[in-house]
Amino acid sequence: MTPAMTHHITHHLPEPMLADYAAGRLGHAFSVAVAAHVSLCDECRARLAAHEAAGGAVLETLPPEPVSDDLMARVMARLDDPAAAPPEPPAPSGIFPGPVMAALKGRPPRWRSLGMGIRQSLLHAGKDGSLRLLYIPPGRAVPDHGHEGRELTLVLQGAFHDETGHFGVGDIEVADASLEHTPVADEGTPCICLAATDAPLRFRALVPRLLQPIFRI
Ligand SMILES: [Zn+2]
């Protein structure tokens, strides 16, 4: 175990979300975030095992996932254009949990600047939501935002705090449409989070709102 993993996890997945995951009812973005938390958390792994034992038979009857949208593929291709890369050096990246490494398809994160030193690496964008890594410099705040749907934020490195509490490595925050929050990275270490949404975020500041269609955050 690395020192970063010794943080005691205090923010866990709610029971209905574990049940939905076990039954295959979550979209890709949420599934990766749930799997990544479970890979770090003994408590949720045990709770998930109970759901899987109870609902395993249901999985057999689920229809296949819908094919990805052609427009989304073209947006993704444009975001992958090296000419669109910001001038900043790439952010440091550690070893992420298995489900995150799988979502990265074995490649290092492709960081894009969101301004103010904040960067994101988009891993997935589809009708079922989006999945990205967020890099937040020490002491820096992510622009104030609310949610049309739900947002899962899993800390992979460092820590952040917002109006609802303090989140360290392995902690997962579940935010719904009623929460307008401003996550701020702790001093010391840059904070890297895995963030999954099942609907676009709405930012209150003007510039992030203009960037939203481009970055699909
Ligand atoms: Zn947990």
UniProtKB/TrEMBL annotation:
Residues in ChrR-like cupin domain copies: 110-194
CDD domains: cupin_ChrR
InterPro entries per UniProt: Anti-sigma_ChrR (IPR012807), Anti_sigma_zinc_sf (IPR041916), ChrR-like_cupin_dom (IPR025979), RmlC-like_jellyroll (IPR014710), RmlC_Cupin_sf (IPR011051)
Name of the featured protein: Anti-ECFsigma factor, ChrR
Organism: Ruegeria intermedia
